Amino acid sequence: MQVANYVVDESITSLRLDRYIAEKLGILSRSQIKVRKLQARINGKSVKLSRLISGGDRLELEWEEPEASFLVPQKIPLEILYEDTRVIVLDKRQGMVVHPGAGNKSGTLANALLHRRLSRSDGEGSMPEGFRPGIVHRLDKDTSGVIIAAWDDAALAFLAAQFKERSTRKTYLALTKGIPPQKSGTISTRLTRDPRDRKRFICSDSNGKQALSWYKVLETYGDHALVALRPKTGRTHQLRVHLRHLGCPVLGDPIYGRKDAMFPEATLMLHAYMLTIELPDGQGSRTFKAPLPARFRTILLRLRRSVRSSF
Q: How far apart are CA 253 and CA 176, in angstroms?
């Protein structure tokens, strides 16, 4: 059980207690508040989490520790872009699964982060009780690039709130088979699961969740294009489905793509290139970039050569 005491900032006039904990204190997210069975007292009296608080109120909070992690720490090489005592920013390689699941119990980013955390502990091989890698967002297995994780619950809640409020800025790069109909634009649809294949998603006019993506064509090479994308929402497979919706799926996409005679060996050409986010160090927003991987550079070189040779 964790216990913490706070005095509400005088600038607060009327705010729900659960919102204050998640958004102002940042010690637990709204979902964590429920999972950890948080209990609260205001000025010595037990209250519901919907209670309104004001400046000067004295808070006494108690919540359960997370269950011990079932993950096994594994020493897996990581490309670290940035790290401090609260967060770690990585360049995830293509093919690495983020979280364990059916058929992927080991070799995941979560396993690697557990090992990393163990190596950063007190030097005697101890692990903080109940520690879980605080992976804030996800990338598909075959999408490479920038991903951020937290080393403690408060940092996790701080980062997660920015993704929820859509105040982060994520930029992806994709090589497409086909060229978008306009040089730039916004794609707004609903995404729902394909009733014929539950592993796929499709665009819908009325079903599913709203999905919004911005794109800009950076270069074209005959029937291929290099496209920058910024997702405004964070739906599963969003960018891949949206590019297919435009008629130019991601090159090498095994689910939404189409065969390409020029690059039959291509794997998914989608890369999380840049992330702008505020860190819990109080220093404001930071931007992190993951360089284009070799698979991108190789195909781009061939495309640019093919364009030059056509003149």
A: 9
Q: What is the phi-psi region of residue 309: left when phi exceeds 0, alpha when psi lies from -120 to 50, beta otherwise? A: alpha
- Catalytic residue among 57, 91, 140, 142, which? 140
**Which residues on neighbouring strands pair with residue 65, listed in sequence order?**
none
Does 198 have pLDDT greater than 90? no
Give yes or no for residue 297 having a pLDDT over 60.
Answer: yes
Contact 7, 58 (CB under 8 A): yes
Q: Annotated catalytic, 142?
A: no
pTM of the model: 0.77
Measure the CA–CA gap between 16 and 225, rounded to whole angstroms: 49
Percent of the chain past pLDDT 90, that is, above it, reads 61
